[in-house]
Amino acid sequence: MHYTCPYCAAINRLPADKAAQEAQCGRCKKLLFDGKPVELSDTNFNRFLAKNDLPIVVDFWASWCGPCQMMGPIFKQVCGQMQHQLRFAKVNTEQAQATSAQLGIRSIPTLIMFQSGKEIDRLAGALPAPQLTQWIQQALVKAQQNH
């Protein structure tokens, strides 16, 4: 399995049977899974999507958006609970305008699940934790069917 380091963007290869919770980056030695979403930008977005074998849920948000501010702690909480099943990332639409435009982000917050760089499912609007978890689980089923 391939995992992109959230700190230095190095590609790490781990055996499928290795416990991901202790996995460290071979380059910078930081944890690959630290319970926090990875901050992505126009510069590292495509590499992160292409170089992770796990599905990735990306939260597109902006600092001025009230629903985005409500969704932030919920997204982080669910990330901490599900971080070994999939990767979690955030994209600030104000700073990553090219990526946001390329993906047609029209309202925020918008959540998109990717598998092998391809969009699997998309949802606009803030959700409480139970509904976010339910949406992720349904999207994971779609990802497995498409993989």
UniProtKB/TrEMBL annotation:
Alphabetical list of SUPFAM superfamilies matching this protein: Thioredoxin-like
A cellular component term, taken from the record's GO annotations: cytosol
Signal peptide extent: none
InterPro entries: Thio2_N, Thioredoxin, Thioredoxin-like_sf, Thioredoxin_CS, Thioredoxin_domain
Pfam families given in the database record: Thioredoxin (PF00085), Zn_ribbon_Thio2 (PF21352)
Record carries keyword Hydrolase: no
Keywords: Disulfide bond, Electron transport, Metal-binding, Redox-active center, Transport
GO molecular function terms noted in the UniProt entry: metal ion binding; protein-disulfide reductase activity
Family: Belongs to the thioredoxin family.
PANTHER family: GEO12009P1, THIOREDOXIN 2
Protein name: Thioredoxin
Organism (species): Thalassolituus oleivorans MIL-1
Lineage, opening ranks: Bacteria, Pseudomonadati, Pseudomonadota, Gammaproteobacteria, Oceanospirillales
